[in-house]
Specification:
Blueprint lengths: L1 H35 E5 L14 E5 L10 E4 L11 E8 L3 E5 L4 E5 L5 E3 L9 E6 L4 E6 L4 E6 L9 E2 L1 E2 L4 E6 L2 E6 L4 E5 L5 E3 L6 E4 L7 H6 L11 E2 L4 E5 L9 H4 L2 E2 L3 E10 L3 E2 L2
Antiparallel strand pairs: 1-2, 2-21, 3-4, 3-21, 4-19, 5-6, 5-18, 6-7, 8-9, 8-17, 9-10, 10-11, 12-13, 13-14, 14-15, 15-16, 19-20, 21-22
Length: 284
Amino acid sequence: MTETTNKKNSVIASIYEWVEVFCFALFAVVMLFTFVCRLITVDGSSMNNTFHHGDRVIISNLFYTPKTGDVVVLQDSTSVDMSAPIIKRIIATAGETVDIDPETWQVTVTDKEGNVRTLEEDYTRKEYILSFPISTDRILELDLGYEYATQYDNYGRQLSEPIALVRIDESNFEILVDGKTIGVDTNTLKVISKDEFGNIEEIDENTVKKTLVNMRMPSVGDMYYYQNAISPMAYPHTVEEGHVFVMGDNRNNSLDSRLLGDIDERMIIGKAYVRVLPNPKIGF
């Protein structure tokens, strides 16, 4: 009887220890995510290709001081545009001066001491127009940013409504035109056309043109709708004290300081440190 009782007490003690460990771990996790860091879900495509819609990211504001290049999450409950958390990259901090060349996408930042540096922005998602002839009198133009194609004649007159591209992978697209499937590699600029009978024709690479689209800057309509938008004529622009200038990596599909103006540092709820899902990564 004593041996059986001892075994029973041992099992109960073991269960108690596991429950205690679990409760302690749960308490530690709750405290961690309450006072040290937070887990947020990326909403939208403004940070492609660094982050995508649905990515889960750990952020923290503990002992944080904003600096250029940091990816941060912002929120302002009093703002319609920032009532929910948005994720952007800091381009310039208080007192620094930012300048943007929309044609080359070159961004320069001048610090308070007058030192000028051109940002190396390999992370940005630039937008291109790809065009090539599909007959002697028609040109197919692909907007790689919005992923659609339109036909034009040799005088630039539009001949068709935009047709959605089919994405094969990061650099390859397909589109069906006049019964032909046209495959496009946006890196090598190789364009191959295949008809319904399987006949393949490669477009002369010398006729394929890839043009960089201008970086988006506020239009007259934008200036009317967004009261804090920074006019293209206002650059170089010096960031207000206590504020930061932010942009999304997907530059032509991002609501950021170009339209919202400088962002109050108090709106920063944390810097992004780790992407948890779907592809774990530390540092951005």
